[in-house]
Amino acid sequence: MLVVDDNPDVRELIAAVLERAQAEVATAASADEALEAVKSKRPDVLLCDLHMPGIDGFELIHRVRAWERTGGAGAAIPAAAVSAYASLGRRLRHARDEFQAFLTKPVDPETLVHLRFPLFLFLPIRPVVGVPRVTLALRDPP
Fold first, then answer.
1. Distance between CA atoms of 74 and 78, rounded to whole angstroms?
2. What is the pLDDT of residues 68-125, one digit of tens each?
3. How many Cα atoms are found within 13 Å in the side-chain-facing hemisphere of 105?
4. CA geometry: angle at 46 spanning 122 and 130, to 5°?
């Protein structure tokens, strides 16, 4: 999992909660660091703060999805937006196809730990030429 947040306290807290739940966690303090990590480490889940200086979380996920579409990844990386602002209105609606989940800060640790499993279940499967589309059945987290 890749946790992206410009606030070191939030970033470390989220990483610690996930590591206690046996997740392998990498962190990034900026969108630039996150893009490098996405390309080099190919995380299985991306948790991204929306409000960061410079490139914000909306632009970061847009760039990640563009990289995926141009052949940078085999399949889309499930992503969750994290924000202290519960009502982001129009901007979040525009990003609904790019984020699979939205969490508000402060993030409840139990919600955070259980989030990683549903993201895999609802991830859209990109069709591959010559391979039939697969439908996933819902199941309980392991």
1. 12
2. 888 776 678 888 888 877 655 555 555 666 887 788 788 888 777 776 555 544 444 3
3. 17
4. 50
| Rounded-to-integer distance, Cα 142 and Cα 134, Å | 21
The rounded radius of gyration (Å) of the Cα atoms in the chain is 15
Point out which residues pair with 83 in neighbouring strands.
Answer: 104
Tokens of 100: 């699979």
Give me the domains of the chain, ranges plus CATH numbers: 2-121 (3.40.50.2300)
Largest CA distance in the chain: 47
Question: Which tokens go with 53?
Answer: 């200086």
CA 88 to chain centre: 17
3-state secondary structure of 111: helix
- Element of type H or E holding 56: none
Residue in 125, 111, 103 with CA at minimum distance from that of residue 57: 103
User: The pTM is what?
Assistant: 0.75
